[in-house]
Structures are given as structure tokens and as C-alpha cells.
């Protein structure tokens, strides 16, 4: 039986003990391999170029290049890379910029080891994870004024179906299988949904769906 290729993970955190602890914990998880540890944003970019990880666990506050700029540069170089923020900070001035820079998921360092491992596996499947406090703050940020018609009024019935599946964390392939349509058609619908809702990515679309009672 052929073994599945492990998810390659790069750790970027300027605290050595954090990196040691994460590496030790993740080293016990099936299907996850820590391929490198970086103590700075600059080193993280260099190691990403060397090891081509699938997922990066990213600290936000570091000496030199912070996690926001590191995420931005990584996403410019590796558009398919999944960056999971793992931080102690819930500040608006840090959280929103790193998500806008391309961070795929956002977890707090108070998360359990199993939650971090699950987020890594979810990211590899194309499913983002937001810590509950982060999701709540994001909902408030994207709340539409009460005197405006909600943006989802412009969605077609098919686009509403796709949005609900996006909110469930399903990948384009999963959605195509569920709705029995082509994956190119799914991508077309997702692009239309993001444009009509005025959001930048699937995570924000999912938050919109939950906030507006559109998700199961």
C-alpha cells in the first residue's frame, strides 16, 4: 500500500522554545513533517525557498521582518502556500493586515496541540480555520450597514449553493462533486461570489455566510 506524502511544515517563530515545542508535538502527528525551523522572517523566506513547504506556521511579532511582511512576501513567491498564523495577539492592527496579506488561517498560541495539527491538515485540504475570537472580530468588521440591502441578495441560487459549501470548508473539487458540475464552473461561481460580496477570499466569504445566517 502506497504511503501518503506527509504535509511539509515550516515553523517561523523567533522564540526557540516555541519552535522546539511545536516541532516535538507535531513530530508525533501522523502525516505531518516539520521540514525546517526559522527564527526570523528573513530566514523563513530562505527556508521556504529551499524546502518548499505546504504549510507555514507563522508568528506575528518578530525582530526584523514581522509576520505580516513575511506572509506577504511568501504569498508573492508561493501563491499556493498555506500560511497559518500562530500568535498571542488579537490586535486589529496585526490581525487584519496579515489576513489581507494572504494568511490562510489564524490561531492563538493558547490553542491545543491537536487543534494546531487539525488546522494544518485542514489547510492542506484547502480548508481555513479561524479561532472563534478571530471569527467574531471579522464578522463585526464586515457587518453591512442596516440601511443597505445585504450583498448576498445579488447572488443567484447556484451561487448561494456554492457559498454554503464554501462556508462548510469544502474545496473546489468537493463542491464540484457535491453539485455534479465541473471544477472550472465552481471556480467561476466562487469568483463571482467574492466579487458580489465585496470580499477578498474564501475565508471572508465563509464569515459573511455565517454572519448572515446563510451557512448550515
From TrEMBL:
- Residues of the HTH luxR-type domain: 148-213
Keywords, A to Z? DNA-binding, Phosphoprotein, Transcription, Transcription regulation
Q: Which Gene3D superfamilies match?
A: 3.40.50.2300
Superkingdom of origin organism = Bacteria
The residues that cross the membrane are none
**GO biological process terms, semicolon-separated:** phosphorelay signal transduction system; regulation of DNA-templated transcription
Q: Does the keyword Transcription apply?
A: yes
GO molecular-function annotation terms? DNA binding
| Keyword Transcription included in the entry's annotation | yes
Enumerate the InterPro entries for this protein: CheY-like_superfamily (IPR011006), NreC/VraR/RcsB-like_REC (IPR058245), Sig_transdc_resp-reg_C-effctor (IPR016032), Sig_transdc_resp-reg_receiver (IPR001789), Tscrpt_reg_LuxR_C (IPR000792), WalR-like (IPR039420)
Q: Residue positions of the PTM 4-aspartylphosphate? A: 59
Q: Which residue range or ranges hold the Response regulatory domain?
A: 8-124
Q: Which PANTHER family match?
A: TRANSCRIPTIONAL REGULATORY PROTEIN YDFI, TWO-COMPONENT RESPONSE REGULATOR
Write down what this protein is called.
DNA-binding response regulator
Amino acid at each position: 500500500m502506497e504511503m501518503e506524502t506527509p504535509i511539509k511544515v515550516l515553523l517561523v517563530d523567533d522564540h526557540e522554545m516555541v519552535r522546539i515545542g511545536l516541532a516535538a508535538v507535531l513530530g508525533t502527528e501522523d502525516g505531518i513533517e516539520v521540514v525546517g525551523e526559522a527564527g526570523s522572517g528573513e530566514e523563513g523566506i530562505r527556508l521556504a525557498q529551499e524546502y518548499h513547504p505546504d504549510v507555514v506556521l507563522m508568528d506575528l511579532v518578530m525582530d526584523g521582518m514581522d509576520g505580516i511582511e513575511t506572509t506577504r512576501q511568501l504569498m508573492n513567491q508561493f501563491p499556493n502556500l498555506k500560511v497559518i498564523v500562530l500568535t498571542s495577539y488579537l490586535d486589529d492592527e496585526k490581525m487584519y493586515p496579515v489576513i489581507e496579506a494572504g494568511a490562510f488561517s489564524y490561531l492563538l498560541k493558547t490553542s491545543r496541540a491537536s487543534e494546531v495539527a487539525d488546522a494544518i491538515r485542514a489547510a492542506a485540504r484547502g480548508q481555513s480555520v479561524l479561532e472563534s475570537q478571530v471569527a467574531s472580530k471579522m464578522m463585526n468588521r464586515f457587518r453591512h450597514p442596516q440601511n443597505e440591502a445585504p450583498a448576498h441578495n445579488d447572488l443567484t441560487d447556484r451561487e448561494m449553493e456554492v457559498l454554503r459549501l464554501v462556508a462548510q470548508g469544502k474545496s473546489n473539487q468537493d463542491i464540484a462533486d457535491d453539485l455534479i458540475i465541473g471544477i472550472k464552473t465552481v471556480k467561476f461561481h466562487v469568483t463571482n461570489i467574492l466579487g458580489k460580496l465585496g470580499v477578498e477570499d474564501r475565508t471572508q466569504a465563509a464569515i459573511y455566510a455565517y454572519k448572515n445566517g446563510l451557512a448550515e
